[in-house]
Write a structure and sequence with these properties.
This protein is mainly alpha-helical and about 220 residues long. It has 11 helices and no strands. It has helices at about 1-15, 15-25, 30-70, 85-100, 105-110, 115-120, 125-130, 150-165, 175-190, 190-200, 205. α1 crosses α2, α3 runs parallel beside α9 (about 175-190) and α9 crosses α10.
Length: about 220
Amino acid sequence: MCEVLQYQGFETALSLERFGRYLEWAGGDREKAILLYSLNTRISEAFYPSLQMLEVSLRNRIHTVMTDLYNNRWIFDERLILNARHQEQIASAREDIKESKKEETPDRVVAELTFSFWTAMLGPSHDALWNQGLHKIAKKADGKGLRRKDLSSPLTPIRVLRNRIAHHEPIIAWNLRKHHSNIQNIILWLSPAAHDWCNDHCRFNAVYPTQRIELIK
């Protein structure tokens, strides 16, 4: 009886709708559903070091290269920020800095902008910028250059995955080994030193099951 009450309390804490997804995957087995939820939580946690390093190193590499190409105030140049929504994000970041009574600097504005902003900098609307020099943000381990799509294609689902983790949503139905490998590769292209740090601190391979996660769909 105690176990049943604990399960009912657990469902209420998560909401029936959220826990219902795990129940479906577990074929109605509440105990298995909780185990799946716990696994989802551990894997989400294990993604944090790599996602953190990806986001920070991507924005800093773009900022460094754009500063070299133009100047450190490039982020305020509307000729370089082509998307109106992204211009609004920059304006919002500047307003937040102002309200916090901090000095507005390019570095502070860069740090305020979201991961989606930086991934969009690698979108097709910035092809010309990529060709002019933005391509210098990354290179393969053998020193060869990359196409814009080598970064933008895997970054699109990685951004969605990152947002799902941030909002505590289920991710165990995803091909997580593939996405984790893509994250690691991009970090290596951006910064070998950052990649070495991830290898020392990331627990994904230790946490992710060696056998396929069985989900009833």
